[in-house]
Amino acid sequence: MDTERISRGLTLITIGGVCLAMALGQLPWSAWWGAASLWPLLIVSAGIDIIGRATHQSWLRIMALLVVILGVLYGVLVIPNGLGSVAVRDSAASSFNRSEPHSMQVTRGVAVISGGAGRLSVFDGADLVSVQGATALGSPAFSVVHKGATAQVNVGFGDTSVWQPSVQANHLDVQLDRDVVWDVRVDTGASETSVDLSALKLSSFSLDAGASDADITLGTPAAQAADDPVSVSINCGVSSLKVRVPRSAAVRLRVDGALNSTEVSGSLSKTSAQAGQDVWESAGYGSGARYDIVVKSGLGSIRLITY
Asked: What pTM was computed for the model?
């Protein structure tokens, strides 16, 4: 029996099983950050393997691979659930709370929301913009610029160029004025993202994300100029994505990416299936208030849910 090859096979099975669970939505893609925070175990494993080679002790080389297997499982199953962490503690994060009051002069807004590794939520509120949370990445970004009846809002975790292995330390909660028509743009890295736009007036929405678990809720689409649809653009690397739309909303969903598992509920019907792109449409789509949702994803699970 070649025990070393068996151990290598078990390592690949473990990593493949974790990736499969993430692709099926059973584990969040951001859980890889928990495994990444245990990177020193790779050095320990390499050291054990070197000793095993030098002493011709195969059991030591097997132990080296088991260290990797256990590290991966601990990182993706335990750390994301808060049951243990070797990463930066939450105490290193600084809390913040910023806001800009509602203005009767503002009727339209552009919100640019940036996040690195962390938890991000966006929902409606009474202020023009209200932000609270905690970040270990220095001073959070917050600015509001008024240009006539339009407000340009920029918020974020801070210096997202800093590598931050702990997604638990950083969280950002953003509230946007429910009486303003918004163009919302979210740019985030490895994160857990919850965006509830059901009570907001929306002109467009875009999400750029890396390894992300995203849950997006859309409200009734607002009529646009020139009978254009409300554009919803989602660009993800590896992700678990849920998009919720009202049952009565007219929707077209386009999914680009051959390595995705896509599930569509409600009355949408698949209208075309080409290499790397699938299209679904609800009955009567083509005019009036409606959503045009485009999803570009490298690897992951995509669900469109009606409510």
From this structure: 0.71
